[in-house]
Amino acid sequence: MFRLPLSVISPSGARGRLSILIFHRVLAEPDELFPETPAAAAFEQRMRWVKDWFNVLPLAEAIDSLFAGRIPSRALSITFDDGYADNEELAAKILRGLGLTATVFVATGFLDGGCMWNDRIIEAIRRVDAARLDLRSLGLASFELSSMAGRRAAIDVVLGGVKHFDPERRLRVTEAIVQAAGGKPSPQLMMRAEQVRNLRSLGMEVGAHTITHPILARLDPGAARDEIGRGKREIEAIIGEPVRLFAYPNGAPNRDYAAEHVAMVRECGFSAAVSTSWGAASMRSDRFQLPRFSPWDRTRLRFGARMLGNLARTEQLAA
């Protein structure tokens, strides 16, 4: 049903397009709080659809083929951001079983027992014992938590309010939220270094995603360059090979990163980089601002329609 229209809109050769999917986690079981995050069975089903409709390529190979004008029709690459342990424990094994591959972009500062700031907030609010959480002293609000919908709404508001703080303030506020929510220890969600290495043995690529996952636009130039360059070197030390690919944290052009950060990525020795701007890449794309998107649809028809619609979008790049 979708192969023919996809072949028309995403042909081979110089007019070809590259769809790049972005995921973060694959869960062992569905999460009532985040139903859009795929559990293993749902992820495998979606990847079977992808395998049926697309020519799935490793991202570095796909990018080289795209800009050489020799990409196959219906080209697609799969990526994961941040470095969650379930990427190695679940997602990579599902992909390998289907004969597919992915690129995992790792923020090195959270490896070996870490938990990213957003997950600390999510898990703190998930596990609050009280029916209300008052964060007005932190410049936020007081939240009703008596229902799962209320907890999700609170999480969305808090994450949106904290996301673009400078790194030091974000860390302070995150810690204060965790304490206000009861001070329970944060879960260890991220990979260990040996899991990163195992991804390579499973046929996955590993890319860089900075050290602490900051909003680059909120850093001074020296700190931004250090996050980009040192994150690359730390991944290379773990896997023992050059790292070619970079993903901008959060990744919205002109908001989370700017043209100066694109230049830094080039200067640090990467060969390409990806954003979170929707659309599909073409030979006219900026090799250092390639678009990606997340298709959350749960039915085959809607998923396929979403893929077609994304191919028709116009890229938004940093000025």
Description:
The chain contains eleven helices and nine strands. It has 319 residues and is an alpha/beta fold. It has two domains: 3-112 and 192-311, Glycoside hydrolase/deacetylase (TIM Barrel, Alpha-Beta Barrel), CATH 3.20.20.370; 117-180. Strands 1, 2, 3, 4 and 7 form a five-stranded parallel beta sheet that branches. Strands 5-6 form a two-stranded antiparallel sheet. α4 links the parallel β3 (75-82) and β4. α2 packs across α4 (85-97), α5 runs antiparallel to α6 (148-162) and α5 (117-126) runs parallel beside α7 (167-180). The protein starts with a helix and ends in an 8-residue tail after the last helix.
How would you describe this structure in keywords?
2 domains; two-stranded antiparallel ribbon; five-stranded parallel sheet; 11% strand; TIM Barrel
CATH architecture of the largest domain: Alpha-Beta Barrel
Approximate helicity band: 40-55%
Shape: globular
**Major β-sheet annotation:** 5 strands, parallel
Our estimate of the beta-strand percent is 5-15%
CATH homologous superfamily of the largest domain - what is it? Glycoside hydrolase/deacetylase
Q: How many beta-strand runs? A: 9
- Alpha-beta classification: alpha/beta
Count structural domains: 2
Uncertain runs are: none
Summarize the structure.
With about 325 residues, the chain is of the alpha/beta class. It has eleven helices and nine strands.
List the helices and strands and how they pair.
Layout: H1 3-9, E1 18-23, H2 40-53, E2 55-56, H3 59-67, E3 75-82, H4 85-97, E4 103-106, H5 117-126, E5 132-134, E6 142-144, H6 148-162, H7 167-180, H8 193-201, E7 205-208, H9 221-239, E8 245-247, H10 259-267, E9 272-274, H11 300-311
Parallel strand pairs: 1-3, 2-3, 3-4, 4-7, 8-9
Antiparallel strand pairs: 5-6
Helix pairs in contact: 2-4, 4-8, 5-6, 5-7, 9-10
